[in-house]
Fold Acyl carrier protein.
Amino acid sequence: MASLVHSVRGLVCRNSQLFRSLAIRTVSSSSSTILSQQKSCNQRILPQSQQLLSNFEYAPQCWSQRGYSSKPKLAEVRDRVLKVVAAYDKVTADKLSLESHFINDLGLDSLDHVEVIMAMEDEFGFEIPDGDAEKLFKPADIVQYIADKEDIYE
């Protein structure tokens, strides 16, 4: 196997100029094909006045709009955290509160704790590092962590 790799490496080194020119020819021929296909596509779609412009002169008119949303309220974060924990099948709703300890009060084990943290990551759209996740044993801890991470203050 090593001899095969050595011989292929030697072949590439000796013929590097050939491979470069072959790659350049391939790229240039494919780009001209793409441009001609784009031009024929543009001729079918664009109005007559814009068909006269070349591909490089035509700039389609696209307007971008960026929307900003306000940060969620702390109460909304609390509700979302409690909803995610309540949706976990091993948690009973009557024992669940913000101060319920996952292991001591709710009877979850370490694997269940990891699954709850993963559900929080899915709900809020960011990853919680393992070092931080090991410290989050109550829904109140998770709410505080998310509020700190998202800069939510009340």
Q: What stands out?
A: The CA atoms of residues 120 and 126 lie 9 Å apart. The helical segments are 2-14, 16-45, 48-51, 74-87, 110-124, 130-133, 139-149. The chain has seven helices and no strands.
